[in-house]
Write a structure and sequence with these properties.
By secondary structure, the protein is mainly alpha-helical. It has two domains: 171 residues, all-alpha NTP pyrophosphatase fold (Orthogonal Bundle); 44 residues, no CATH class. Helices cover 61% and strands 4% of the residues. It is built from eight helices and two strands. It starts with a helix and ends with a helix.
Length: 223
């Protein structure tokens, strides 16, 4: 995973948002921590592992997107025929939708991975703000024991420990403790994604690049 490239991309995005939203000179770190905490909750919601009250505890890793042209029917004349039926007129013959080649679908997405890289954006923003880039460069050995022995306390235990470390990186009075706590929070977060849910570093990087482009497009459209 090319962290340096991701740092540079995140810095460009953050600077663009600050400039276009007129936020120069403001302390945005508290907001960024709240944003990350919010995204972590959304990630957990898609992960579903903690929902012991539900029969469905499988992570949401695949959503199929229906073609808006034919409303998922594969028929290019779908809307025309619907209007005709409502008006009491005859229907047009089936015509294969060109936008989806008659499949009714235009692709699929991984909601869990999407939420994971949303969190990643804010981890990067915090590291940039604090000058903690080196705290995110963790050696492979740092994950070997956890990969071998699994998560103590399960996913929920690791998730809660990660959140505690993250908050400690903000509220601690000691600067060294802040940075160490952030490094540990990042390591646990990455472990949850790679060990807990099987994401590869290549998947994470590709998903980050894609979502970063979407975030730029949102700014372009006045998000």
């Amino acid at each position: 995973m090319n962290l340096q490239q991701m740092f540079e991309m995140q810095k460009v995005l953050d600077e663009r948002i600050i400039k276009e939203k007129g936020l120069e000179g403001q302390d945005l770190l508290p907001n960024t921590y709240v944003a990350l905490d919010t995204e972590l909750a959304e990630f957990a919601n898609e992960g579903r592992w903690f929902k012991h009250w539900s029969k469905n505890q499988k992570p949401r890793t695949k959503i199929e997107h229906f073609c808006p042209t034919c409303d998922g029917t594969g028929d290019e004349n779908y809307q025309m025929n619907l209007d005709s039926l409502l008006e009491g007129r005859g229907a047009e013959p089936y015509s294969k939708c060109q936008d989806c080649n008659g499949s009714g679908k235009i692709g699929e997405s991984n909601p869990l991975l999407t939420e994971f890289v949303d969190c990643l954006h804010f981890f990067l923003s915090i590291a940039i703000n604090k000058g903690w880039g080196d705290a995110m460069s963790l050696p492979e050995e740092a994950f070997s024991e956890m990969r071998k022995n699994g998560f103590e306390g399960g996913l929920s235990g690791v998730f809660l420990e990660m959140k505690w470390m993250l908050f400690n990186s903000y509220i601690s009075k000691d600067q060294s403790t802040k940075k160490t706590s952030f490094m540990m929070a990042w390591g646990l977060f990455l472990s949850i994604g790679t060990i807990g849910f099987g994401f590869t570093l290549e998947q994470i990087e590709a998903a980050y690049m894609e979502k970063n482009a979407v975030n730029h497009q949102r700014q372009q459209e006045g998000y």
